[in-house]
Amino acid sequence: MYIVAIAWIYVVLLMAMSETSAVTGVLTFVFYGLLPLALLLWLVGTPIRRRRLREDAEGVDQAVGGRDGKDAEAD
Questions:
Q1: Fewer Cβ within 10 Å of end Cβ, the chain: N or C?
Q2: Pick from 40, 42, 41, 18: which is nearest to 29 by CA?
Q3: Distance of CA 51 to the CA centre of its chain
């Protein structure tokens, strides 16, 4: 997935460098390259973020609810 992102940035960078004005080049790079790529990577990464949050929550539940044998119990 990252190879596609790198290739897209490369193509957009070449497009931006071929523009006639520096302002047009920067706008081309931002609106054709950075913003769409950031949106794509954010959308593709959503399942991974959700899975990590779920695993972290399960780990906290196990740590809080589990018995570690260190607590003294009444005789």
A1: C
A2: 18
A3: 13
Instruction: Return d(Cα 42, Cα 5) in angstroms, integer.
Output: 12
Within a domain: residue 74? no
The count of structural domains within the chain is 1
In a domain, 14, yes or no: yes
d(CA 12, CA 4) in angstroms, rounded, equals 12
pLDDT, tens digit, 9 for 90 and up, residues 12-70: 999 999 999 999 999 999 999 999 999 998 998 888 888 888 887 776 666 666 555 56
Within a domain: residue 69? no
Q: Six-digit token pair at 39?
A: 């949106």
The model's pTM is 0.64
Range of the domain at 47: 2-57
36 within some domain:
yes
